[in-house]
Amino acid sequence: MSEAKATAKHIYGGGCHCGAVRYSVSTGANPPVISCNCSICSKKGSLLSFVPADDFKLLAGKDAVSDYQFNTKNIHHLFCKTCGVESFATGTAPNGDRMVAINVRCLDGFDLETLEPMKYDGKSA
């Protein structure tokens, strides 16, 4: 695979169940995805891909989300106030860069069958 093809970005639309929260995100066609076993991710069943904040654009729903933080309070878990779905979260990467955690289950037309999620032990982190 050529390097240009390996780094090609795709723009996906995504959002919550009721449509109050909508966004676009630029990421690879087959981005790295984690399956975290922390107390919140395991209960939600999220599959997360992390992107730089500049690759994420909130199109609708700024006032439709509720912020929840726990433990180290490094991540803002943003739930739709209407349907309760957390389609993305925001935070800071270990290097200090702003990032967005995308729940790839909430991306429009994304083929989940192509994924091989990496397990992350968030329970022990």
Automatic annotation (TrEMBL):
All copies of domain CENP-V/GFA, residue ranges: 12-121
Pfam families: GFA
Highest taxon of the lineage: Bacteria
Cited InterPro entries: CENP-V-like, CENP-V/GFA, Mss4-like_sf
Family matches, as SUPFAM superfamilies: Mss4-like
Keywords in alphabetical order: Metal-binding, Zinc
Annotated signal peptide: none
PROSITE patterns: CENP_V_GFA
Family the UniProt entry places it in: Belongs to the Gfa family.
Name the record gives this protein: GFA family protein
